[in-house]
């Protein structure tokens, strides 16, 4: 009984939020356009010069077609 009551209360609270979110959905992009995306790849302990010597065609392709750093500093949290 308690689980059913909790589920009903949750549905009652979340329902209006879901409706409000759907009503304010992001507009679709015009034809021929795309939303840019960013992929950040970090590999602990990997030096950039080792990638050149490795057989890593996918990493090399990402480096050739994107941006990469050769002197990034590690910041200890």
UniProtKB/TrEMBL annotation:
Q: Has keyword tRNA processing?
A: no
The record ties this protein, via InterPro entries, to: Alkaline_phosphatase_core_sf
Q: Does the keyword Signal apply?
A: yes
Keywords, A to Z, come to:
Signal
Its signal peptide is 1-25
Protein name according to UniProt: Nucleotide pyrophosphatase
Q: What is the lineage of its organism?
A: Bacteria, Bacillati, Actinomycetota, Actinomycetes, Kitasatosporales
């Amino acid at each position: 009984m308690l689980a059913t009551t909790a589920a009903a209360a949750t549905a009652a609270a979340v329902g209006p939020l879901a409706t409000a979110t759907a009503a304010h959905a992001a507009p679709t992009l015009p034809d021929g356009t795309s939303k840019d995306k960013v992929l950040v790849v970090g590999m602990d302990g990997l030096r950039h010069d080792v990638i050149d010597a490795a057989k890593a065609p996918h990493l090399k392709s990402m480096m050739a077609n994107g941006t990469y750093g050769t002197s990034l500093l590690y910041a200890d949290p």
